[in-house]
Design goal:
By secondary structure, the protein is α+β, with helices and mostly antiparallel strands. It has three domains: 2-133, 434 Repressor (Amino-terminal Domain), CATH 1.10.260.40; 149-277, Arc Repressor Mutant, subunit A (Orthogonal Bundle), CATH 1.10.10; 332-480, no CATH class. The protein is built from 20 helices and ten strands. It has helices at residues 2-22, 27-34, 38-45, 53-63, 67-71, 80-87, 89-93, 103-112, 114-130, 135-149, 155-167, 178-188, 227-242, 260-277, 280-291, 298-306, 312-327, 375-388, 436-441, 475-495; strands at residues 192-194, 209-212, 218-221, 251-252, 332-340, 347-355, 396-404, 410-421, 424-433, 452-455. Strands 6-5-9-8-7-10 form a six-stranded mixed sheet. Strands 1-3-2-4 form a four-stranded mixed sheet, with helices on one face. β8 and β9 (424-433) form a beta hairpin. α13 packs across α14 (260-277).
Length: 496
């Protein structure tokens, strides 16, 4: 494989440079001893060239090192973490070019400060092991960085969605239906679509869809999905076909992810689906009108969402695509909080994204208790009461000004909470940093009717002393306070 060959070059280059430096030889010295040019040796050490057998033999003699030892992929203790990283499937499957990184540049970094870099890499690997970080979590972390690097906006995908809409004469349809999209899948791409197959298999009842590749492709859709869920699956499937992505996942929800390319292609196909269902040419003027209002109106916001055949999650995520690019509102976060089995202590963040590099609030893998003052928790509690009283099973929407404890950050938060199934509720939230840019663009930011609350990330890390919603003691804060007291006592002792 090409990537494997590239890693062999990198490891050989690392080993050659290390041996040369250990023997206190310059490139010029090694050139004279081996008969190889300085420029060629430099290319080898950078991992760009791999010498032929006769040239390796010359290097072996010049360095007084056995041939087999020189070509071995084993590195000594100092460079072992680099070899582990280079040989790992993680690095092998991540397209470094997405971030403007050349593999040869990595080897230069590694070889210039091997001990420090290796210690850092070793620490990362140890953290991943200790927290049992899965391959999927690793891929999603990289994907989030990729999204944040581009402000979650991709003009090429927007353009391709516009072209698809034009080619299929959908310009005049704001509310695109599953019937519209299934017709395109079956007529243009010869799909067979079935909604009565998954229920025949108990083990597959939780899947929303399964695509079986073949001639023809067969798309199995869970018959219990609502219209907005179904239309998104069809739109994403069209994204895979229109964008011609071969490397992909076939089940939704995901069962297994085999590569980062699958993760990235799924994101792009989903982005295409959002751009198809909520086209920028229609939604941007609507938000210009909404933001010009002096007062927040939940019914107006909900009505705007209902113009499009999309779930609250698709709608909110679509805003994170467009607001940075079209309104210059690019300091925001997106969170999806899930409540399992209607248990008030089982709140989990399973999706998050932060534009602007401010990371409150954020997911926590330490089994700590997320702040109950978040609007997402409040809305899910409200939703649960309505479900229990059978008043509604629809989503509920709300806003809140959230001031973070021990931080200058304040966010204007808009949230939708709704049932996923009988035992699971979810809430999607967008938080906009309350800076001058946001206040210039959104007139209703200071609506007096909007609730303001001090919030934290988790109870364990919150310094609020009069919090009635607290469900766990602030033991992390207590430990930090005790440490500061000890440091102060030591400082007095040193001064004395």
């Amino acid at each position: 494989m090409k990537l494997k060959e590239e890693n062999i070059k990198l490891i050989f280059g690392l080993k050659l440079k290390q041996l040369r430096q250990e023997k206190k030889l310059s490139l010029s010295d090694l050139s004279q001893e081996s008969g190889l040019s300085i420029s060629y040796l430099n290319e080898i050490e950078k991992g760009k060239k791999y010498p032929k057998a006769d040239k390796i033999a010359s290097l072996s003699l010049a360095l007084n090192t056995p041939y087999d030892s020189l070509v071995s992929l084993k590195l000594n203790k100092k460079l072992a973490p680099i070899a582990e990283l280079l040989n790992s499937s993680f690095l092998g499957e991540v397209p470094l070019e997405l971030f403007g990184i050349e593999s040869s540049k990595l080897v230069e970094l590694f070889s210039n400060a091997p001990i420090k870099v290796n210690a850092f890499i070793g620490a990362l690997i140890e953290i991943a092991r200790n927290y049992e970080m899965s391959k999927e979590q690793f891929y999603f972390a990289i994907l989030r960085s990729y999204q944040e690097l581009h402000d979650n906006y991709f003009e090429d995908l927007e353009t391709q969605a516009d072209e698809f809409i034009h080619e299929n004469k959908l310009e005049d349809k704001t509310f695109v239906t599953s019937k519209d999209l299934s017709g395109i899948l079956t007529s243009q791409y010869k799909y067979v679509i079935k909604d009565d197959e998954l229920e025949k298999h108990n083990e597959l009842s939780d899947f929303r869809s399964v695509m079986i590749p073949g001639k023809p492709n067969v798309l199995l859709i869970n018959k219990n999905l609502n219209e907005s869920q179904k239309v998104f699956i069809l739109a994403r499937e069209l994204g895979y076909q229109y964008l011609d992505y071969k490397e992909r996942v076939y089940t939704f929800t995901w069962l297994k992810v085999n590569s980062f390319e699958q993760t990235l292609n799924n994101y792009k196909a989903s982005y295409f689906a959002g751009a198809l269902l909520i086209n920028r040419k229609k939604i941007v003027p609507e938000f210009e009108t909404l933001f010009s209002k002096n007062n927040w109106d939940a019914n107006v916001f909900r009505s705007l969402m209902n113009q499009y055949n999309s779930s609250p999650e698709t709608f909110m995520h679509r805003l994170t695509n467009l607001l940075p690019s079209y309104f210059n509102i690019n300091n925001l976060f997106f969170l999806r909080l899930v409540n399992e089995n209607n248990n008030p202590h089982q709140y989990v963040i399973n999706k998050e994204m932060h534009l602007g590099k401010k990371h409150n609030p954020h997911a926590n893998l330490l089994n700590e208790h997320y702040c109950r003052r978040w609007i997402s928790v409040r809305l899910m509690e409200m939703l649960q009461k309505k479900v229990e009283s059978r008043k509604t099973t629809d989503s509920v929407v709300g806003v809140q000004l959230s001031k973070y404890v021990d931080s200058e950050n304040e966010y204007f938060c808009i949230a939708f909470a709704g049932p996923v199934n009988e035992d699971k509720h979810a809430c999607v939230t967008i938080g906009f940093l309350m800076n001058n840019e946001f206040k210039k663009k959104v007139n209703f930011w200071n609506d007096a009717q909007i609730t303001t609350k001090q919030v934290g990330v988790t109870c364990e890390r919150c310094s609020l002393t009069n919090c009635k919603e607290r469900v766990a003691p602030a033991h992390v804060i207590a430990e930090e306070k005790k440490k500061l007291e000890i440091e102060a006592a030591l400082e007095k002792l040193y001064q004395k």
